[in-house]
Structure formats: structure tokens, C-alpha cells
Amino acid sequence: MMRRRRARPGIAVLATVLLVFLPAASVSGPPNAAPLTGVDLIVPPGDTLETVTPTFTIRARDPQPIDRPITLRLQVAFTPGFTGQFVLDTTVIADASALTLTRPLPSSSTVYIRASARANNGELVFSEVAQRVVPAWLTLISPNELNGTTLETQRPRFIWRSARINAPPGPWLYDLQIRNVATGQILFYSNLSDTSFVLPVGSAGLPLEFNTSYRWSVTARIPSGESITVMSRSSFVILNPTVPLATLLYQNFPNPFPSATSSSTCVWFDLSTPSVVSLDIFDISGRHVVNIIPGREGPAQYAAGRHGRVGPGTSPSGCNGNVQWDGRGRDGAFAPPGVYLLRLRVSGTESVKKIVFRGGP
Q: CA 39, CA 61: separation in Å to the nearest integer?
């Protein structure tokens, strides 16, 4: 006489707004066995997980007393075929179980999740496979421009973010390194709990140097020892408003000259380091016309900074009278009208600009 199974109501499922149900896909078991109805795998919605330690729920569908004990299994792998190494492969004896990961999923990886339920008589059912992307464990925010960043403070704020993680295995702790690109010197701050940091004032921290390239990195780690280190995409420089980043000769102005407002042409140049300077005028054939620096009133040694300018209200043209050309040669006579070359020589390097002189009065 065959015993008939009595149907039971399905298990009520709560919080359906937050969970996604994946129906049973395959069934295997002994011949002539009455199989389990199926198994439901409940995973967080969306393509990308909100945490690196998510909760997955498994529920055997419509279990009967004869099915028990039921062995539930959760598998997380890098391949949809569940071959090779598993990220997670765990079992539990229950009709239903919510499994929260106690180790973080690998940063920025794509994982595949499936569940199975095995009845006491060997019947085995699988859920469909779910695919999810794991969020990055750590992302640097600022200063982190792809083409480099220029800052105006010697104590900048470093900002990063990390993926949500349960405690345990969290919380995250952070180590910040700031490296001088030229010298390799490193400032190190460890065991930070916040995701932003400003260099301290006083004996606890030194300000960063002006006009120096730095790169920074953060290591995020958890008490179990797992960690990740991310380096800034490029360097950053703290701009000193009084010291230029590079030595530069600007185009003289006005050009051509003389003009209706100026009988001379102004010359501006920047020095990134203290330097011996020479500034000369040549005609187009290369003949030396006049030396501007060092002149009768201008030194040959110049400090790092911006030169040729004067303060507001000092000169209508904004030009230093010692760093300009009035069109005269060494003998005090006006040079012929034409194209001339302005040459700045600093520490063995040269910069040249063309000057158009309209002629003297």
C-alpha cells in the first residue's frame, strides 16, 4: 500500500521588497523517490552588492517530515560552472538558513552564487545561479585626479571610502602613507578609523613642502589580517604662490612696440630656484644688440620667484623698469626696425622669444 504525502502550505517569506527569489532549477535523487519541491536562494537585489559580507538566505521548498534532516548548501564561485576554487562552500542542517559571510568577498570581483538542498533520502535540488559584483574594498577620492592635482595648502585633507563590512570581520582600519616623489621620504599614519585625514599641527605632524611632488596610498585592513592597498593615480603638488613651479620666459609686451601707451617692451620671467640670470637682445642674424641682465642696476643672481612685475599702483604698465627694452643698443642709439630675439639663459638652459621693434622716434 503506497503512502500518500499530505501537502502542506508553503513557507511564508518576509521582506520580499529587499530580497530576490530564485526558483529551483534542477532535481536529482533515487528512482521513484518523491523529490523536494525545490529550494529558494534569496540574494540582495541589484547588480552590485552593497557590502562585502552579504547575507544569503536558503529555504527548502515545502519540506515534509520524511525529508528531514535537510542539508542546505551555499556555494560562491568565480565561474558560473562552479569549477575550480570556491570563494565559499558551506553547509548547514536546517529547513531554512540565513548565512552572513564572516570573511569579505574579494574586492571588485564578479561572483556566482547557488544553493542546494539534500533530503534525508538523498534527494538533491539546486537553485538557479545568481551573479553579483563585489564592491571595491577601497577607493581613493581626493587628491586623486588622473592628470595630477595642484593644492594650495601644506596640510591637505586626504579622503577615501571603503565598502560596507559587518563586524566581525570588520571594522576597517586604515594606514596612510604620503611619499615625497623626489626623495622617497615617507610620512606614515596608522590605525586610522575615519575615511578622511588632515595632517596634524604641531609636533605630531610636519607640513608638506611647497612645489614638491607627492603620492599617497591607503591600506585598509581588518582584524583577521586581510588587507588591500591602493596608490593614488598620480602625484599632487602644493603650489607656493610666491615661488613658481617651473622656470619660464613670458612673451614680452607690448609686442610689436613702441605702442600708443608704451615706448618700451616689458619682460617677465619666473624662476623655480635661485639662479644666475642673463637676459639679452640679439638681431635676427644673431648679432648681440644689448644686455638687459645683468645691467647697470640689476644683479645677475636672482632669487626664486616671479620677476619683471611690480606691485599694483607702482607702474601703469606693471613692468619693472630694470627688466625691459626700449629699443636701444649698447651704444645708446636706437636699433633699426625689425625682428629681434629675446634670450633668457638660466643655469645652462635657454628660452627665446621674438620681439618686433617698430623703430625709434
A: 5
